[in-house]
């Protein structure tokens, strides 16, 4: 019988994280500390373990809208420069401790200005935190600047992403409730980014179906799809197991468009009913450009290693599968090709080879 990777072994593997929200991965103790320092008095509890449990249970509702409400508390304590630096530094530390060697962490600058910080000050504080937390830990962390799809500041945030792209901002994203807020509402921002030769991903195919994915790709020109799980709606599987891809699904596979999949989060928001039924199993078999991520480490009580371990347990994946997911993610990163290649050939493949040899 082939040895299946354990959680402890997976933690040692060099991993890549492309879909992780800064305000979804704050340490519970940090939330309590910052609430005390900033006068934020709306926390449901100030006990660390109780707070950790509250976030997980509040996120398990099966509703994307209810899930998003948990961010009121994390964003609420992330309104000062010092708070942003601390949260970003701890994020980089936590990811490095989980074996992540490259990460793109996203956040919405517009959500952190209620105490007077400018958008530029928000970005500079987070970049400083990433730098502090990454130093000497064998991890590289870039930022994705997110615009909220129900607001009207996407052009402003897109310009911000371009302004800081040479000092740590890897790209742009839009997020928030999908239903009723199609990505085409922000077409001017996406067209601007394309003219600037800039990278962007779009949350699509999570809380809404194929039209969301189609618009993100064919109208807006997304480089990657945040989640993209509903692409499964364009694949028919016959009783004998033979798959038939619709035109959109075939396009996504043929063009190697990366799917930023976050299995635990998808279960919480109702985008999938169980891990065994999660589209990732079929999409992996059909060789879509599948990548595996955390989304919100606090709300889902997860890490990249935990996500991988759950997939190993559910689908029987081995080291080759985990390496495949990881290389897919590194190929899809928003950094120059030669730098991606250096990490794949110099860090990821040797790291997995050593773990497979030890197993």
Automatic annotation (TrEMBL):
Record InterPro entries: A_deaminase (IPR028893), A_deaminase_dom (IPR001365), Ado/ade_deaminase (IPR006330), Metal_Hydrolase (IPR032466)
Positions contributing to Zn(2+) binding: 19, 21, 203, 295
Residues engaged in binding substrate: 21, 23, 176
Catalytic class of the enzyme: hydrolase
Record-listed E.C. numbers: 3.5.4.4
Organism of provenance: Sphaerisporangium album
Site feature location: Important for catalytic activity: 227
Protein name: Adenosine deaminase
Entry's cofactor comment: Binds 1 zinc ion per subunit.
A Pfam family that the UniProt record links to this protein: A_deaminase
Keywords for the protein's UniProt record, in alphabetical order: Hydrolase, Metal-binding, Nucleotide metabolism, Zinc
Domain Adenosine deaminase intervals: 14-349
Biological role: Catalyzes the hydrolytic deamination of adenosine and 2-deoxyadenosine.
Active site: 206
Catalyzed reactions per annotation: adenosine + H2O + H(+) = inosine + NH4(+); 2'-deoxyadenosine + H2O + H(+) = 2'-deoxyinosine + NH4(+)
A GO biological process held by the record: inosine biosynthetic process
One Gene Ontology molecular-function label: adenosine deaminase activity
Family to which this protein belongs: Belongs to the metallo-dependent hydrolases superfamily. Adenosine and AMP deaminases family. Adenosine deaminase subfamily.
Reported cofactor(s): Zn(2+)
Cellular component GO terms, alphabetical: cytosol
Annotated Gene3D superfamilies: Metal-dependent hydrolases (3.20.20.140)
């Amino acid at each position: 019988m082939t040895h299946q990777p354990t959680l402890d072994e997976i933690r040692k593997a060099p991993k890549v994280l492309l879909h992780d929200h800064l305000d979804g991965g704050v340490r519970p103790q940090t939330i309590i500390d910052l609430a005390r320092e900033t006068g934020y008095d709306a926390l449901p509890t100030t006990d660390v373990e109780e707070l950790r449990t509250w976030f997980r249970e509040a996120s398990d509702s099966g509703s994307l809208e209810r899930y998003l409400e948990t961010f009121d508390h994390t964003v609420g304590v992330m309104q000062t420069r010092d708070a942003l630096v601390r949260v970003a530094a701890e994020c980089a530390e936590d990811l490095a401790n989980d074996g992540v060697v490259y990460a793109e962490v996203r956040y919405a600058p517009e959500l952190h200005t209620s105490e007077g910080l400018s958008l530029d000050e928000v970005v500079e504080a987070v970049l400083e935190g990433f730098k502090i937390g990454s130093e000497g830990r064998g991890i590289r962390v870039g930022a994705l600047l997110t615009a909220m799809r129900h607001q009207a500041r996407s052009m402003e945030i897109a310009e911000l992403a371009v302004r800081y792209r040479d000092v740590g901002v890897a790209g742009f994203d839009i997020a928030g409730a999908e239903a009723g807020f199609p990505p085409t509402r922000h077409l001017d921002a996406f067209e601007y980014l394309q003219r600037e030769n800039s990278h962007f991903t779009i949350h699509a195919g999570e809380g809404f179906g194929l039209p969301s994915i189609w618009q993100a790709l064919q109208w807006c020109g997304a480089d990657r799809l945040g989640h993209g799980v509903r692409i499964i709606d364009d694949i028919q599987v016959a009783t004998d197991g033979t798959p038939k891809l619709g035109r959109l699904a075939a396009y996504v596979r043929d063009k190697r468009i990366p799917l930023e999949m976050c299995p635990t989060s998808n279960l919480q928001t109702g985008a999938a009913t169980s891990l065994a039924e999660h589209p990732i199993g079929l999409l992996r078999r059909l060789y879509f450009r599948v990548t595996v991520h955390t989304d919100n480490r606090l709300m889902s009580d997860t890490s990249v290693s935990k996500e991988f371990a759950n997939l190993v347990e559910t689908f029987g994946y081995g080291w080759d599968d985990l390496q495949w997911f990881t290389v897919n993610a590194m190929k899809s990163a928003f950094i120059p090709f030669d730098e991606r290649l250096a990490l794949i050939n110099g860090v990821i493949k040797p790291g997995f080879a050593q773990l497979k040899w030890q197993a």
